[in-house]
């Protein structure tokens, strides 16, 4: 049941028939995990907090650096040297005191993900390295939690959503494998702020669509910031995928294999 203040606060999205009161109540009841509080995680978190997503968990091991400020739009000069997860949480609480924000200043490894995912409605992968991306993909697949994944480098961006509640959905490893590939880093290759902001903004849009019961398309969206062109690639489940090709079975001791 929405209060008068909430009806006023969220009125512009409540006006949308695709969102409505039912959508507002759905996002208010949702716990969402954001992996990475950088150029993708900042717009994701700001839009989801603004929309009234009830509980946001933010995990990032790093501190704000002055070289982050051109693209990580939640931070100000005073935040340099502060843990990103905590600085972002403070900004989100100032934006929306109605919601619960929990920062984690640490890396999102497999054990932490497995312990954290129960009760999470959706994960947004906003990280900057392949090892974390692989761990997040495997953990979300194992826990059947939908994943919206984004990446950006130079003038290029991409995003894709996997709804792991559907066993037929492909996964990130179907696309890129799960090995230890070399990372392409913004610190070496460069990035323009609006490119990563574009991808993060659309991750937030996909998240709101998923949280309000809409289907996602299972398509890889590729953005070229030089031409403003988008390309779409249909994804197929890889029958040899090391993560999702086997059905998850429970053994008699309760462990998953
Ligand atoms: Zn797969």
How would you describe this protein?
The chain has helices spanning 4-9, 11-14, 20-28, 41-51, 84-95, 110-116, 130-143, 172-176, 186-189, 193-211, and strands at 31-35, 55-59, 100-104, 122-125, 147-153, 156-162, 219-224, 229-234. By secondary structure, the protein is an alpha/beta fold. It has one domain: Rossmann fold. It has an eight-stranded mixed beta sheet, with helices on both faces. The structure holds zinc ion (ZN). The site of zinc ion has 8 residues, from helix 8.
Name the features.
single chain, binds zinc ion, alpha/beta, 257 residues, Rossmann fold, 10 helices, 8 strands, 8-stranded mixed beta sheet
Straight-line N-to-C gap:
42 Å
**CATH level-4 homologous superfamily:** NAD(P)-binding Rossmann-like Domain
CATH uppermost class: Alpha Beta
Main sheet characteristics:
8 strands, mixed
The total count of helices amounts to 10
Give the C-alpha Rg: 18 Å
**Regions with little confidence, pLDDT below 50 for 5+ residues:** none
H and E string = HHHEHEHEHEHEEHHHEE
Give the spatial strand order of the biggest sheet: 3-2-1-4-5-6-7-8
Strand content: 15-25%
Find the count of extended strands (DSSP E, 2+ residues). 8
Number of domain units: 1
- Ligands and ions found: zinc ion
Protein name: Molybdopterin synthase sulfurylase MoeB
GO molecular function, one term: sulfotransferase activity
Domain THIF-type NAD/FAD binding fold: 10-243
Pfam families: ThiF (PF00899)
């Amino acid at each position: 049941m929405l209060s008068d203040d909430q009806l006023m606060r969220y009125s512009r999205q409540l006006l949308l028939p695709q969102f409505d009161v039912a959508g507002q109540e759905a996002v208010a009841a949702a716990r969402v995990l954001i992996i990475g509080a950088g150029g993708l995680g900042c717009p994701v978190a700001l839009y989801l907090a603004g929309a009234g997503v009830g509980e946001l968990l933010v995990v990032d091991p790093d501190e704000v650096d002055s070289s982050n400020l051109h693209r990580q739009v939640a931070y100000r000069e005073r935040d340099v040297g502060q843990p990103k997860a905590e600085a972002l949480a403070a900004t989100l609480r100032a934006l929306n005191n109605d919601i619960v924000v929990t920062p984690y200043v640490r890396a999102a490894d497999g054990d932490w993900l497995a312990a954290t995912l129960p009760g999470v409605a959706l994960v947004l992968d906003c990280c900057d390295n392949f090892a974390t991306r692989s761990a997040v993909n495997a953990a979300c697949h194992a826990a059947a939690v939908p994943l919206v994944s984004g990446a950006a480098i130079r003038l290029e961006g991409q995003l894709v959503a996997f709804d792991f509640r559907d066993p037929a959905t492909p996964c990130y490893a179907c696309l890129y494998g799960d090995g230890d590939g070399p990372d392409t880093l913004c610190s070496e290759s460069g990035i323009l702020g609006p490119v990563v902001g574009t991808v993060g903004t659309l991750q937030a849009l996909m998240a709101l669509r998923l949280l309000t019961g809409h289907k996602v398309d299972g398509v890889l969206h590729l953005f070229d910031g030089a031409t403003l062109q988008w390309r779409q690639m249909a994804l197929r489940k890889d029958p040899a995928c090391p993560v999702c090709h086997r059905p998850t079975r429970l053994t008699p001791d309760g462990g998953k294999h």
